[in-house]
Design goal:
Keywords: Hydrolase, Membrane, Protease, Transmembrane, Transmembrane helix. GO terms for molecular function: peptidase activity. InterPro entries: CAAX_protease (IPR052710), Rce1/LyrA-like_dom (IPR003675). It comes from Blautia caecimuris. By secondary structure, the protein is mainly α. The chain has one domain. Helices cover 86% and strands 0% of the residues. The radius of gyration is 19 Å and the shape is globular.
């Protein structure tokens, strides 16, 4: 197990550390301060994520071949998602992000949420919404799911129960974010992402959930800020009700879908 977890995990972390270190050196050499460093964090994160994906996909393919050869998994491909199911997973990701954020908000005195929000505001300040969605809503989720679900979760699942593998991969995912607020938020979502990967039988389920969560977290504040202040509370309540319905309906749908797969 560790022959796969160690190299892919270490490569992912090293690429992030080297990228940030290189950015720090550039800032120092050119006389830029902390503000410039923070302004380039998203770009550097995206670039290192792209660079990380190539070897991690190779690790995944190699590991998959070994698991098939040992008879751990079948040779036939996993269940494909229909377009409507893909859209539903994106919406489910949005609902999961919303309610996970609400849980974190309830723990704000313990997690120091305000400090985290201030740091994120400095990092995202001045960035176009398109740029944020591309790097944080598409590239980062894909790279992180390849590492934490496709590699770490699936390998752990070969040696432990599904729930145990989901929890451990979720903890790794939370620790990777390196701050307490994100650790709790990401740890919860990481567990749920692994669960949906398991019940759908599709690798892309966790990717779409993750993308939906990140993109929605970027879009929601923009949507609310553009609304008249008098309508903001009503709109927010309406959004939460819709997302709660999506969460219930979507979860029920994929559970029933999993039951049908087991019966076939």
């Amino acid at each position: 197990m560790w022959r796969v977890l160690y190299p892919c995990g270490i490569h992912f972390l090293i690429s992030q550390i080297v990228g940030y270190a290189a950015l720090a050196v550039i800032c120092y050499r050119m006389g830029y301060g902390l503000e410039f460093y923070q302004s380039q964090t998203i770009l550097m994160t995206g670039i290192t994520a792209l660079l990380t994906m190539v070897p991690c996909i190779w690790f995944y393919q190699k590991d998959k071949g070994a698991r098939i050869a040992r008879g751990v998994i079948p040779e036939q491909p996993g269940k494909k998602l229909k377009p409507g199911e893909g859209i539903l997973l994106l919406l489910l990701g949005a609902s999961l992000a919303t309610f996970a954020n609400m849980l974190v908000a309830l723990l704000q005195n313990v997690l120091n949420v305000q400090e985290y929000q201030e740091n994120m505001a400095q990092i995202t300040n001045g960035k176009s919404l398109f740029m944020l969605i591309f790097w944080m809503g598409v590239i980062a989720p894909l790279a992180e799911e390849i590492v934490f679900r496709w590699l770490i979760y699936l390998r752990l699942r070969d040696y432990t129960r599904v729930a145990t593998a989901a929890v451990i991969s979720g903890v790794f995912f939370g620790v990777y974010h390196m701050n307490l607020t994100q650790a709790v938020y990401a740890g919860i979502l990481g567990f749920v992402f692994a669960y949906f990967l398991e019940i759908t039988g599709s690798l892309w389920a966790s990717v779409l959930l993750h993308m939906g969560a990140n993109i929605w977290s970027l879009l929601l504040p923009e949507m609310l800020l553009r609304m008249p202040e008098k309508q903001m509370v009503t709109a927010a309540m309406g959004i939460y009700i819709v997302l709660l319905c999506v969460l219930g309906t979507g979860s029920s749908y994929f559970k029933k879908r999993a039951c049908r797969r087991r019966m076939v």
